[in-house]
């Protein structure tokens, strides 16, 4: 009897930064930061299938037709490779391979962490599909080597990131909140945005993250909205005035608050409920390349392997 090869279909969720306090550039070139990160329901999908031929086969389809590298430079490919390497260092022999198909919905260069989330999902999936039993520490080390945001996506939910983004402290789940995410034509490179920040002396108070943590611990919704901030807004809005305009437009369309996602270029607006989020999104649909409604997720909901069974 023919049996289908074991495969796994997982979701890789995007994130927003409820706060993003950036400190000075460190000796290693990275910036110290403090950020409350929040997983959201906008997601890519990865399908991983074991195959007899060793190695990694990788294909990618962007639902908006945009160009996403479908080769060994893709972070999801590199993550799968790093899981195999970690297993081999731990003495686990693998004589088969994997094909990965990535379906992109999260826009790139948007500050939504799409590539980082794909990488974390690939790491966790390869670990599960091949029964590698990599430790939490090993997965975290592999994730941090792939990118500063990757460790967050191993667990998702709501968490504070410190260091260059890899030191995480879990926070209580944020009460569900509806969002509108809009990505304009402009794209922002993360490295460029950090360089721009170096020139900004007068940054936000740097206390936003501490205040946000307190608001989450006391589940104070009003303060959660009030304390949201992002140090990148000043330099990015200065360079891309259309993003400053989009921010105001989101507010005029009914968003309770609006902020840049990571270092941009997407912005998110918060909405009182799903119907309001859809109404706000309708103002932007057709005028901007990416418009989506999304919802903040709990830790359990944002687990890439949650609810996904081996087939
Ligand atoms: O770690 P990742 O590859 O995502 O970072 C991309 C770029 O963003 C880095 O090369 C660096 O220029 C900048 N960065 C930084 N400080 C951080 C994270 C990223 O300066 N904490």
Can you describe this structure?
- With 311 residues, the protein is of the alpha+beta class.
- It has two domains: 164 residues, Ribosomal Protein S5, domain 2; 118 residues, GHMP kinase, C-terminal domain (Alpha-Beta Plaits).
- The protein is 33% helix and 26% strand.
- The strands form two sheets. Strands 1, 2, 3, 4, 5, 6 and 7 form a seven-stranded mixed β-sheet that branches. The protein has a four-stranded antiparallel β-sheet with strand order 9-10-8-11, with helices on one face.
- α1 packs across α3 and α2 packs antiparallel against α3.
- The longest helix has 16 residues.
- The radius of gyration is 19 Å and the shape is globular.
- The site of cytidine-5'-monophosphate (C5P) has 11 residues, from β3 and α5.
- Cytidine-5'-monophosphate (C5P) binds next to β3 and α5.
């Amino acid at each position: 009897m023919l049996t289908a090869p074991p495969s796994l279909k997982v979701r890789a969720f995007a994130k927003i930064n409820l706060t993003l306090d950036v400190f000075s550039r460190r000796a290693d070139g990275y910036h110290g930061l403090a950020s409350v990160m929040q997983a959201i329901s906008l997601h890519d999908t990865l399908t991983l299938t074991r195959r007899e031929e060793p190695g990694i086969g990788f294909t990618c389809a962007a639902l908006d037709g945009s160009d996403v590298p479908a080769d060994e430079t893709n972070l999801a490919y590199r993550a799968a490779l790093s899981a195999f390497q970690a297993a081999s260092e731990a003495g686990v022999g693998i004589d088969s391979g994997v094909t990965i198909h990535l379906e992109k919905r999260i826009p790139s260069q948007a500050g939504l962490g799409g590539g980082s989330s794909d990488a974390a999902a690939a790491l966790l999936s390869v670990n599960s599909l091949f029964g590698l039993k990599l430790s939490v520490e090993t997965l975290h080390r592999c994730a941090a080597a792939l990118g500063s945001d990757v460790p967050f996506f191993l667990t998702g939910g709501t968490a504070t990131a410190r260091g260059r983004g890899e030191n995480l402290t879990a926070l209580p789940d944020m009460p569900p909140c509806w969002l509108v995410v809009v990505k304009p034509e402009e794209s922002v490179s993360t490295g460029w945005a950090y360089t721009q920040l170096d020139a900004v002396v007068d940054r936000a108070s740097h206390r936003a993250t501490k205040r946000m943590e307190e608001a989450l611990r006391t589940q104070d919704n009003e303060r959660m909205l009030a304390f949201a901030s992002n140090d990148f807004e000043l330099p990015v809005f200065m360079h891309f005035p259309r993003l400053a305009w989009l921010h105001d437009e989101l507010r005029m369309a009914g968003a309770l608050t609006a902020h840049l996602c990571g270092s941009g270029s997407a912005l998110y607006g918060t909405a009182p409920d799903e119907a309001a989020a859809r109404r706000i999104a309708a103002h932007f649909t057709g005028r901007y390349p990416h418009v989506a409604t999304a919802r903040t997720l709990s830790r359990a909901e944002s687990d890439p392997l949650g609810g996904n069974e081996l087939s």
